[in-house]
Amino acid sequence: MPASTSAPLEPFVASSADGFDGLRLVHLPFVPEIRLHLADDAIVLRARLEAQVGPGLTPFWANAWAGGQALARYVLDHPQSVAGRRVLDVASGSGLVAIAAAKAGAAEVTANDIDPYALAAVAMNAAANGVTVAVNEGDLLDGDGGDADVVLAGDAFYDPDLAARMLGFLRRAAAARDVRFLVGDPGRGHLPDRWLTVLTSYLVRGLGAAEDAELTEVSVFGRAG
Predict the structure, then answer these.
(1) Strand 196-205, strand 215-223: pairing
(2) What is the pTM (predicted TM-score) of this model?
(3) Tens digits of per-residue pLDDT, 109-147?
(4) Which domains, and CATH codes, for the chain?
């Protein structure tokens, strides 16, 4: 699918200098190679979005979650994990991990999310970082990842039901084509570690969400085999 347009979010960026109800382009302290448009205040941003377009999904894409930051850091530090490969970033949110994969030399990168505003954020953030990221809107978790060689999932195990579906998706992808996958998770308790191996751990502070603002140990996992 071609890259999404960032147009739906442009008014929120334009107003961010006037108050704390918009998006601001910032460097991430833990991943300084990447800039993202993040919410000054995600709660206020959500209220403003709902006032303009009606009730919708929580704007998780306006935060830089600790699991995504850790996974992006790992990919940039280990470019061989994605270089020359087709990469699928599921539950992409802001596109942070997808952008890291593109910077690390992936042959193709697709960011997937169920929220069209997330995909607009991916387009805006990819442009800000000078990389190309395709987007795919919709729920892919009943499939097996299509033709992806590598599947990335940053902070996608925060809910038990979602975690169960995500694990099923990863298992099908691994069985179908022996896909490589990497997961970043801050120990939310829903990630079964019996099938995974810890590749590394970092201390990371999330950006944009009060509940994720503490310094947290985040692990990057890969398939144990």
Answers:
(1) antiparallel
(2) 0.89
(3) 999 999 999 999 999 999 999 999 999 999 999 999 999
(4) 7-223 (3.40.50.150)
